[in-house]
Design a protein that fits this description.
- It is a single chain.
- The chain contains nine helices and seven strands.
- The chain is of the alpha/beta class.
Length: 237
């Protein structure tokens, strides 16, 4: 649970870096962490979950594989929660209704950065979660075959734009939790710079901590069912 505690501390710390990149290979728990963070932030009264986007190349949803859907989705989700942000976003879309089809760097500027400026009097952190970014690409080039080079370029462009937003002089505390595999096109962007972002490589987590987390998870699940818990001793656990 130490990783989750560290993320919660990062969210609450208004002076902390605005981007937290969690890198790990398949099966290391990135999505479980992202889902748990979303769940906890929703329950927190002094933190706002601005929006979340869970990329997936295995899902039947084309949108979850399309990197150009990420920013418009995050903006739409925050607009549902904030009338002030919604009005500022509507003003941007009135000036240029085609923004969602622009380059992702322009999406970040006009769908997130500019409308967020209207929340200058907002005092709580706003958290956006983007999970499994490595599984998101661009539009398929022919049929269902995706153009990896173009996809990687767009993902890299998105990360550069998010880092630029995070380093801007925007007055409110906007946080981005991003998880992905440590693939080259992601690792070679400023998101991997631990002097400006908070970075965690899951393979470096202490094995004792991992074991303790597994122990806690099993104990919690067993304890939730008294009949089941009665069948197991501490030695079994």
């Amino acid at each position: 649970m130490q990783i989750l505690s560290d993320i919660e501390d990062w969210i609450r710390n208004l002076e902390a870096q605005r981007i937290f990149w969690i890198a790990g290979m398949a099966g290391t728990g990135k999505t479980a962490i992202a889902q748990t963070v979303c769940s906890r932030v929703r329950e927190h009264t002094e933190v706002v979950l601005g929006g979340s986007f869970f990329c997936s190349r295995s899902t039947g949803s084309v949108a979850q594989r399309e990197v150009r859907c990420i920013v418009p989705t995050l903006a739409r989700l925050l607009a549902r929660q904030s009338a002030i942000f919604s009005e500022a976003l509507a003003a941007q879309l009135t000036r240029d209704p085609d923004i969602p089809n622009h380059r992702v760097s322009e999406q970040v500027r006009y769908l997130l950065y500019e409308p967020l400026l209207a929340l200058k009097d907002f005092h709580f952190p706003i958290v956006f979660v983007i999970d499994a970014l490595d599984e998101c690409g661009g539009q398929p080039s022919t049929g269902m075959v995706s153009n990896n080079t173009e996809s990687h370029r767009i993902v890299s462009e998105l990360l550069v734009a998010l880092v630029n937003l995070s380093r801007s002089t925007i007055s409110i505390s906007v946080k981005f939790l991003v998880t992905s595999r440590p693939e080259t096109h992601i690792r070679d962007t400023p998101i991997s710079d631990d002097t400006i972002n908070k970075v965690l490589h899951l393979h470096t987590v202490n094995k004792l901590q991992v074991t303790a987390d597994i122990h806690f998870y099993i104990f919690t699940r067993l304890s939730s069912n008294s009949k089941l818990r009665a069948r197991f001793t501490d030695d079994h656990l």
